[in-house]
């Protein structure tokens, strides 16, 4: 009997190290995937003024071109979901990362607005493919681990955004040009995906159910709020650099605005759970949206670069935990099944990314860029009226993004 127990212990000791190693590798691969997703999108922000100059575009034309980034995301989301459900998230993750690394240098070199629009469309598809597949893979790894991991994974996404914005701004400022900087960024993504591939799980998602559904009930209110917040974040991503250059900041440093925004969001997300525990979800949403909106409005109308950067930083601090709270609320409401609710909420959110850049660009042609960006802040304040339609829990939120 004792010998049998010893034999079982030996077998367990032989198996468990492999299982632990697989889980450790899978965690690392998931973190690298989240890093790539945040990094790639943030790398685009400092490149926007150069793209506008190359294609000689006014605000309306640039807005129409930027629309393709959001359109690509909307196309990529359902496609990535369907493919991931059929073959698993691993191939989609690899394809998305390779797509991002391939397209980014083209976006830095294209002088034709149509070709740039096509590149942005492909970039948007790749961004959303890796975003959807990474979240699915993260859920699989979390299930395998048996402990919550998603909040930490999304924290790495924020770090990727910080590194991408700050790194590209630095490389453009001190390096030979935006094309060389984009090539370095592509190399970083290739290295990350090569390191991640061995750790990707090869299992398929357990559910073959519907990925997307029409939002209803409280999910609709949550989704509309998310759309407004994504629109605001998109304003900082696509138009923050243009706003700063209009205030006489040297173009090579114009990406510093989104870099500060990303830093602020990253910091706020790592302390967000404790803040929610003290203030509650409802108060965090009211305060977060209000302060973020005021920060955007002050950034739009500030007369100096330093005040503009300070306002952008405050907006980032306030906005950082809004998205985690909204996704968490979508997961616990009872109007719809949680997976469908999260997908439907995300779809509405990406609608903000789709329409935001074009709306701001065309509005800027009529009322000026500061008024157009301030309009986003005003819209966020109006969106506060949706908060009473959302039910809140008493317990602390575990951040979901």
From TrEMBL:
Supply the CDD domains for this chain. Answer: MFS_MosC_like (cd17393)
Q: Which InterPro entries match?
A: MFS, MFS_dom, MFS_trans_sf, MFS_Transporter
Query: Which keywords does this chain's UniProt record carry?
Result: Membrane, Plasmid, Transmembrane, Transmembrane helix
* SUPFAM superfamilies (UniProt xref): MFS general substrate transporter
User: What membrane topology is annotated for this entry?
Assistant: Multi-pass membrane protein
Subcellular localization is given as: Membrane
Major facilitator superfamily (MFS) profile domain sequence ranges: 26-395
Instruction: Output the PROSITE patterns linked to this UniProt entry.
Output: MFS
Q: Which residues span the membrane?
A: 32-51, 63-84, 91-108, 114-134, 155-174, 180-201, 222-245, 251-271, 283-302, 308-329, 341-360, 372-392
What protein name is recorded for this chain?
A: MFS transporter
**Which organism is this entry from?**
Sinorhizobium chiapasense
